[in-house]
Amino acid sequence: RKEVEQDPGPFNVPEGATVAFNCTYSNSASQSFFWYRQDCRKEPKLLMSVYSSGNEDGRFTAQLNRASQYISLLIRDSKLSDSATYLCVVNMGTGGFKTIFGAGTRLFVKA
Amino acid sequence: GAGVSQSPSNKVTEKGKDVELRCDPISGHTALYWYRQSLGQGLEFLIYFQGNSAPDKSGLPSDRFSAERTGGSVSTLTIQRTQQEDSAVYLCASSLAVAGGLHEQYFGPGTRLTVT
């Protein structure tokens, strides 16, 4: 089993749709969680950190479920510019701060 | 402020040659990571530096790969006797890595390595 697993997609949605991505992680000792966005042939960029209580940033909502070891990202009112690959990232928080990136979920938002 | 910078942005080399890739992290960031990303694939962790601690080299794919971080700042990733399968984008990231913090990583633009 991979340490961090994501549905690779692609998710094809119309503008204005709501779309949700899930990510599961295997190490219960994981301490911090993030969603990154990567555009084609570009470096990953931090989208949002995921807090235990859940957090929202505009159209984006992230949730963490430690008991079930999964993280989710909800995008409301999708825009064409949301088309990208979304990476789930888990930091083990051990002395080495080992960070594991999921393989990513591709999203295509169409007019 | 300045972000993470990497050089060169593109490197084409012949099989068997050595290459050096450079990363300048964000000033004040104590943690530095190297990753590799092949076309259409996810990020593959290579090596991690944190302050003066011994680096975590668990991701280096072979002994042809090595990395240094001088003075706790600039890092160089060296690939000896390059092979065609080394062709990829090499990404560097840095993080503040404060104990108890979230350790968000900020990436450089990457070096696209092509081995012919």
Describe the fold and architecture.
- The complex is a heterodimer of chains A (about 110) and B (about 120).
- With about 110 residues, chain A is mainly beta.
- Chain A is built from no helices and 11 strands.
- In chain A, strands 2, 4, 5, 9, 10 and 11 form a 6-stranded mixed β-sheet that branches. In chain A, strands 1-3-8-7-6 form a 5-stranded antiparallel β-sheet, with no helix packed on it.
- The termini of chain A are far apart.
- In chain A, about 35% of the residues are buried.
- By secondary structure, chain B is mainly β.
- Chain B contains no helices and 10 strands.
- In chain B, the strands form 2 sheets. In chain B, strands 2, 4, 5, 8, 9 and 10 form a 6-stranded mixed β-sheet that branches. In chain B, strands 1-3-7-6 form a 4-stranded antiparallel β-sheet, with no helix packed on it.
- The termini of chain B are far apart.
Radius of gyration of chain B: 14 Å
Residue-averaged pLDDT of chain B: 91
Report low-confidence residues of chain A grouped into runs of 5 or more.
none
Structural class of chain B: mainly beta
Largest sheet of chain A: 6 strands, mixed
Number of helices of chain A: 0
Order of helices and strands of chain A, N to C?
EEEEEEEEEEE
Please report the distance between the alpha carbons of the first and last residues of chain B: 37 Å
The helix tally of chain B amounts to 0
Mean pLDDT of chain A: 91
Kindly, what is the distance between the CA atoms of the first and last residues of chain A, rounded to a whole number of angstroms? 37 Å
What form of chain A results from the Cα inertia axes? globular
Structural class of chain A: mainly beta
* Helical amount of chain B: under 10%
The best one-word shape of chain B is globular
Give, in order, the helices and strands of chain B: EEEEEEEEEE
Uncertain segments of chain B: none
